[in-house]
Amino acid sequence: xxxxxxxxxxxxxxxxxxxxxxxxxxxxxxxxxxxxxxxxxxxxxxxxxxxxxxxxxxxxxxxxxxxxxxxxxxxxxxxxxxxxxxxxxxxxxxxxxxxxxxxxxxxxxxxxxxxxxxxxxxxxxxxxxxxxxxxxxxxxxxxxxxxxxxxxxxxxxxxxxxxxxxxxxxxxxxxxxxxxxxxxxxxxxxxxxxxxxxxxxxxxxxxxxxxxxxxxxxxxxxxxxxxxxxxxxxxxxxxxxxxxxxxxxxxxxxxxxxxxxxxxxxxxxxxxxxxxxxxxxxxxxxxxxxxxxxxxxxxxxxxxxxxxxxxxxxxxxxxxxxxxxxxxxxxxxxxxxxxxxxxxxxxxxxxxxxxxxxxxxxxxxxxxxxxxxxxxxxxxxxxxxxxxxxxxx
Length: 393
Fold this sequence. Notes:
Helix content: 40-55%
Number of helices: 12
Mean pLDDT: 88
Order of helices and strands: HEEHHHHEEEEEEEHEHHHHHH
Number of strands: 10
Radius of gyration: 35 Å
Structural class: alpha+beta
Number of domains: 3
Low-confidence stretches: 1-18
Strand order of the largest sheet: 3-2-4-7-8
Strand content: 15-25%
Shape: flat
């Protein structure tokens, strides 16, 4: 009887273990040629750029500004010394008052201590007061200004022609007019807030395709944090240079997304549940996706790519249809929260890797609606945060 009972428990445990969901991960390397939003015929792939900005800074301007700032320091040196002496005198007055207060406090505490009997001192563990006088303030005279040549590597040397030369569309020739790019930008604006530095640089981007406006938007009009220190503690020239490059990079990204064919060489982590039987459809979906990813080539008009995409999407459709079967309230269900987690993560990762941020964001939003039920691990939470950053940046 006892043996039958033990055997029964063993069979039950075997059944439970048989249902356990083992999920493995694999890194899949692939390459694709991402098509632009607005595909342009090969004969019309040319562009022109006009930039209007307040920048007209040469090497000579930078050197002249450096010398002017040095001369200003020289002119203000005597006043700086006088201010330092005046501040020192004020600190001495404050010091003398503080010393007087400490001495009076010490005198009172010494008198109170002297009134205590030896037995009381022992019982109270009382220690004799100590007079601690702070160090006397020192006079710090500012050093005389010394001229140093400006570091031209960090200097902002730029004009409209230089800015226009930095704007480009891969695969297009410069000098034509089929794609007409107009950029109007302000100079970088800085402001302080709560001890931090913020900047913006309102930039108007207008792009016409054969005379028809395709892009019309204003970039970087909102202030964003650039440093955790106030503006008087940072190198504004370096930060302006970096911010200006950020604006140019964003313009180039927009142009690439709309007009350029881009080669994507990437690696994506995809997961699969390995149990046989209940999850054969998911294993089939995994094979569809991974084998067809590996077949793709970053070549224009490459016929096998079309078939590979179609077969890849068969696997994606299985993942999507399986999500509709999830029972978020039953951990023992065949399609439970654990299965939902790996499917959502696969869909987010895959769409990001293929450059489909909007689709990745869609599945991110769906997954976030079920986060309370999914109970992610520490690693899964961190990965989801990293994926979210990629989607929104």
